[in-house]
């Protein structure tokens, strides 16, 4: 543990590394890992469960009075009325993991009175550790990180997440993808939102957007972005996003250019804005097929 870090962040790092060790062991023989399907294209493995268990045990051993909000166990463990709540995704990118695609991470955040104060995103395949404490900056492997300095959207690389669950609005996403692709240097879909946000914080990508996210997908990564000098909100540019299931993040100038493009696709957009969403022409009226 580093004496220079906040004590709570040190404990979160210890928990994330312990979970990462479990994930790396599972990755050695991923075909033998037991997998359950929560819903179509939404999986949980025994590795998710074991990683979550060690994270919770580590956090509660140090802070038994804290609450827990975890992807697999919800609020079953920890204090139910604490102002301090650990928000945990033990393996963000489970679909990647079970296919042997090495893009996934551990995400741990501490919210105090509803505001995220500590954040850890750990990539066990690369041993990359992203950390942040509110007011103290964001770091990757103990090196200070900042969001990208690019200011022209057409030069930017943007991260995103494709819809994959039943009921997801695929047509709406295709509209967003079309509009963003035409205005940028490219889109990337790695498959782990917490790591996507960490990459925005580190300046590896210039922005990120996705819908259908849960609080544990965004909590840690959002603090990384803001502590690295970026902005995070929903598609309409409002700061209330953690419970709203849509996230837009980026360097300030890029964030400001993405909001006008994506706002009309937001579930919170005004009717007039939603009416501006491009409509596909009917067949026989200029449609290609």
UniProtKB/TrEMBL annotation:
The EC number(s) this enzyme carries: 3.1.3.25
Alphabetical list of PROSITE patterns matching this protein: IMP_1 (PS00629), IMP_2 (PS00630)
SUPFAM superfamilies to which the protein is assigned, alphabetical: Carbohydrate phosphatase
UniProt cross-references to InterPro entries, sorted A to Z: IMPase (IPR033942), Inositol_monoP_metal-BS (IPR020583), Inositol_monophosphatase-like (IPR000760), Inositol_monophosphatase_CS (IPR020550), Inositol_monophosphatase_SuhB (IPR022337)
Source organism, top-level taxon: Bacteria
Catalytic activity reported: a myo-inositol phosphate + H2O = myo-inositol + phosphate
Pfam families noted in UniProt: Inositol_P (PF00459)
Keywords carried by this UniProt record: Hydrolase, Magnesium, Metal-binding
Necessary cofactors: Mg(2+)
EC class (word): hydrolase
Chain segments annotated as coiled-coil in the UniProt record: none
Membership in a protein family: Belongs to the inositol monophosphatase superfamily.
PANTHER family tied to this protein: INOSITOL MONOPHOSPHATASE, INOSITOL-1-MONOPHOSPHATASE-RELATED
Protein name: Inositol-1-monophosphatase
Source organism: Verminephrobacter aporrectodeae subsp. tuberculatae
Lineage: Bacteria, Pseudomonadati, Pseudomonadota, Betaproteobacteria, Burkholderiales
């Amino acid at each position: 543990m580093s004496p220079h870090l906040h004590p709570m962040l040190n404990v979160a790092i210890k928990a994330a590394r312990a979970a990462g060790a479990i994930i790396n062991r599972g990755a050695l023989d991923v075909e033998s890992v037991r997998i359950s399907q929560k819903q179509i294209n939404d999986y949980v493995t025994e590795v998710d469960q074991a990683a979550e268990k060690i994270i919770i045990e580590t956090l509660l051993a140090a802070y038994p009075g804290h609450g827990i909000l975890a992807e697999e166990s919800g609020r079953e463990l920890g204090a139910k009325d604490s102002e301090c709540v650990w928000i945990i995704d033990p393996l963000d990118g489970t679909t990647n993991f079970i296919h042997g695609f090495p893009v996934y991470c551990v995400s741990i955040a501490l919210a105090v009175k509803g505001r995220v104060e500590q954040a850890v995103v750990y990539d066990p395949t690369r041993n990359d550790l992203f950390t942040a404490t509110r007011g103290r900056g964001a770091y990757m492997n103990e090196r200070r990180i900042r969001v990208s300095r690019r200011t022209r959207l057409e030069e930017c690389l943007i991260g995103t997440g494709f819809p994959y669950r039943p009921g997801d609005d695929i047509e709406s996403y295709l509209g967003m993808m079309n509009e963003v692709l035409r205005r940028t240097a490219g889109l990337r879909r790695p498959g782990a939102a917490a790591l996507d946000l960490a990459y925005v914080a580190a300046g590896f990508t210039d922005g990120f957007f996705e819908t259908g996210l849960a609080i544990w997908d965004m909590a840690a990564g959002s603090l990384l972005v803001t502590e690295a000098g970026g902005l995070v909100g929903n598609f309409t540019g409002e700061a209330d996003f953690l419970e709203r299931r849509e996230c837009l993040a980026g360097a300030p100038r890029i964030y400001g250019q993405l909001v006008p493009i994506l706002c009309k696709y937001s579930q919170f957009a005004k009717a007039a804005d939603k009416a501006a969403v491009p409509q596909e022409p009917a067949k026989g009226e200029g449609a290609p097929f």
